[in-house]
Design brief:
electron transport, mainly alpha, 13 helices, 245 residues, single chain, Cyt_b245_heavy_chain, superoxide-generating NAD(P)H oxidase activity, NADP, RBOH/FRE
Length: 245
């Protein structure tokens, strides 16, 4: 038992810490967007899908930061050879770098699935709210807000085109939507080509497809920078909106 703890203890601590950080990030960002007063109006349009999209996004940022570290050869070689900073137990864990790399990859896949599904609901609701903007509802009034001095729009969808065409238009005409499609497709190709049968039978496919990580990370940065999400949280403005309904 003592030998097992000595051999596996550090691995368990690292994995539990990693899972704990993921759980904390997800729960914290979920509460911020689901209950925070800053996003009161946004929730009127997006509904609960807002929090379900933003929480995994925070986890994706964290795991995408980690995913390359276990496969950085020079860094691993330096750590293995540095007896000053690495004990025998830590060097043993470094030999399991690919296992941790795969675990992080599956975590990225999980949060990508949640993030994508949530955004599908978000886009559907935004397009529907824009189409019905003339109706006397809170969603309609909020969708009619414009991007000008003293006012900011909450519904970035400006064309009154019904779903599914309206949703497709959002996916391919907005930078955030287009880059989201690109990086999701890149991730799907990377993951599917990493299965054991592909690696063993068609290693070249696995090897070259993995180089799509360059497109993935470039798209990820642009995806975040191209955010179209806005907030509108003044309580005095809410009173004015309520009177207009």
């Amino acid at each position: 038992m003592s030998n097992w703890v000595g051999n596996e203890g550090l691995s368990i601590i690292v994995i539990l810490a990693w899972l704990g950080i993921n759980a904390f990030l997800f729960w914290n960002f979920y509460l911020v967007y689901d209950e925070g007063p800053r996003y009161f109006y946004s929730r009127k349009i997006y509904g609960s899908a807002l929090a379900w999209a933003r929480a995994p996004a925070a986890c994706l940022n964290f795991n995408c930061l980690l995913i390359l570290l276990p496969v950085c050869r020079n860094l691993l070689s330096f750590l293995r050879g540095s007896s000053a900073c690495c004990g025998r137990s830590l060097r043993r864990q470094l030999d399991r770098n690919l296992t941790f790399h795969k675990m992080v990859a599956w975590m990225i896949a999980l949060h990508t699935a949640i993030h994508t599904v949530a955004h599908l609901f978000n886009v559907e609701r935004l397009v529907d709210a824009r189409v019905e903007a003339n109706n006397n509802t809170i969603q309609g009034v909020l969708s009619n807000l414009e991007d000008r001095d003293g006012e900011t729009y909450l519904n970035f969808v400006r064309l009154k085109t019904e779903n599914p065409i309206g949703g497709i238009n959002v996916a391919f005409t907005f930078l955030a939507g287009l880059t989201g499609v690109v990086i999701t497709l890149a991730l799907i190709l990377i993951i599917t080509s990493s299965t054991k049968i592909i690696r063993r039978s068609y290693f070249e496919v696995f090897w070259y497809t993995h180089h799509l990580f360059v497109i993935f990370f470039i798209g990820l940065v642009i995806h975040g920078a191209g955010s179209v999400f806005a907030v509108y949280s003044s309580f005095s403005d809410y009173l004015n909106i309520e009177k207009s309904i």
